[in-house]
Amino acid sequence: MSAATIAPFRAGEFHLFTARGRDFVYLVPSGGIFELTPAARQILDFAQRTDADSEDLIAHLANVGFAELEIEETVTDLIDAGALLAPGTAPEPRIDPPKNFPLQTLVLNLTNQCNLSCKYCYEYGDDKVATPEGKPKFMDTETSRAAIDFYFAESQGTKALHVTFFGGETLMNFPLLKEVVDYATNKAKSEGRFIDFSLTTNATLLTPAIIDFLAANRIGVTVSIDGPPEMNALRVYQNGRGSYDIIAPKIKLLLEKHKTRPIAARVTLTADVTDVLKIFRHLTQDMGFQEVGFAPVTTSENRLYAIGGSKMDSVLEQFKLLAQEYLDAAVEGRHHAFSNVTDTLSELYNGVNKSHPCGAGLGLAAVGPSGDISPCHRFVDSDTHSLGHISTGIDRAKQDDFLHRGHINQKYDCHTCWARPLCAGGCHHEAYVRYGDTGHPNLHYCDWIRDWTDTCLSVFGAISTHNPVFLEKFEKR
Amino acid sequence: MKHLRPLNRKAHRIDQFAAAKQADVVGLQEKRVNPAKLPHIPAGCSIAFFPGWEVDSSGGVAGLCQPMERDLYDCFADCFWPAQVPDHMNNYSDWAKKCAAATQDWRNLDVVFP
């Protein structure tokens, strides 16, 4: 056999990674993940570092003991998978989401008022984008029903509906929450559709009666809390009093009584709150949360509570330790509460290849107390980012503009990044706060995201080798 | 693929796509099976031996081993193929009543005038 039988090729876009001594490849932009034979790994290594031709490849691999037939077959497989490209392979065309994409999730901001004054709040803090002046502070019944009607009409063709209640502090308008659950549940029933609800709360206003209602209606609860008492210094009342001592017993009661859905904690990391391991242990072992997710605060660079680069490095190292723990648990088929890994594994399992970083303005919309529609809860009450009003529907021109700027193909910095199928440039809100443009890539997190994605890929590779059944649960997500 | 093992849903789709490029076109091919191990069974009326829509060596139909009306009858009786035969479901259920054995009675199959 001569080198001529090997199809000519050049390297496509991919990311090589290893897990527990095995080799894998993550394909870009498809999002496919394959385990590699030693020959396949060597060929991709070779293709990545040189533009030498197939004869050189055969000579190189024959030297290390591979048979020509094996090399030839492997090259064909790699071309079929898109890891290697045959000459003349055209670049992927830009794919826009279909027009009038149906809504999958509605965020209902029941109020923009809050009983806490967290220093880093995106809604009221130094970097706020909301312009609530002159708008209602609490949503009324009429607006909430119109919002639900709008959502049902805009989600035609989808069987499963999701409504998330948000604030301000969501529970400051609990009477309306109850009404909406009742109204939307009946409406879904009459149309033969399924609906579920969730909410985010600071937990200060939880009562036994509210908890009973949440449990009875299977309403998912996410509690904003930043860890043990000393880590909650920024989560304070207006008079500066801390919130931890108020919420701790209420969370205890919530976790005791609400068993119909997993209860999650959502941690905001700031300059002095980066002890991820300590926070995680406190929230899971001491308090009993079933899910804990972390995200760095969204802020402009110069704020005192902004996290600097070296602290993000420390966060990453601690994330990696927890990811290792997660892997050990997954191999034994046990649940692990670190939801940053769970969420990424779900996306890796399904092989997502995103045109946009998230569903904001696409499958997800938020409605504020005034009835204004915004891309997500973070833009609620912002005149600049409004996408219309529930009385007149989505302003398609504004939506097109938002989605056009947020499209991965508009983000030139992302074009050579292997992590773009998952990241797609990062949060629109983060981009606006940092760069003044929702379509700007979150360049300050690139290295961090790539390192973290590589970690999650290794976890995925190891689980798929040692306990693939664990991944099947992501089929339904 | 022999040298790559698909691990996620997207990879499985890529793998199926690649396999389909290699495989022969096989009727009723739904699940991925090794085509080399499958008998080649196309679907439809040609599963049995009928002369089909053919012409004889002279370009006509007189020399076929079965009369061409045999095909017409077959389409009428038990085949989904929309051949130009009377519709036996609704309008001409008796069309083949006088044709008990096609090889002998085929002359009784007549044209209809809707």
The gist of it:
Chain A is α/β, with parallel strands linked by helices.
Give the total of beta strands of chain A: 15
- Straight-line distance between termini of chain A: 48 Å
Residue-averaged pLDDT of chain B: 68
Q: For the terminal residues of chain B, how far apart are their CA atoms?
A: 57 Å
The total of helices of chain A stands at: 14
CATH top level of the largest domain in chain B?
Few Secondary Structures
Work out the radius of gyration of chain A: 24 Å
Shape summary of chain A? globular
Report the biggest beta sheet of chain A as strand number plus sense, adding barrel if it closes: 8 strands, mixed
Could you report the average pLDDT of chain A, rounded to the nearest whole number?
Answer: 93
Would you count the extended β strands of chain B for me? 1
> What's the CATH topology label of the largest domain in chain B?
Quinohemoprotein amine dehydrogenase
Strand content range of chain B: under 5%
**CATH arch. level architecture of the largest domain in chain A:** Alpha-Beta Barrel
Most extensive interface: A-B, 30 and 17 residues
- The proportion of residues in beta strands of chain A is 5-15%
User: What sequence of helices (H) and strands (E) makes up the elements of chain B?
Assistant: EHHH
What low-confidence regions of chain A span 5 or more consecutive residues with pLDDT below 50? Answer: none
Give the number of domains of chain A.
2
Measured as a percent range, the helix fraction of chain B is 25-40%
If you consult CATH, what is the topology of the largest domain in chain A? TIM Barrel
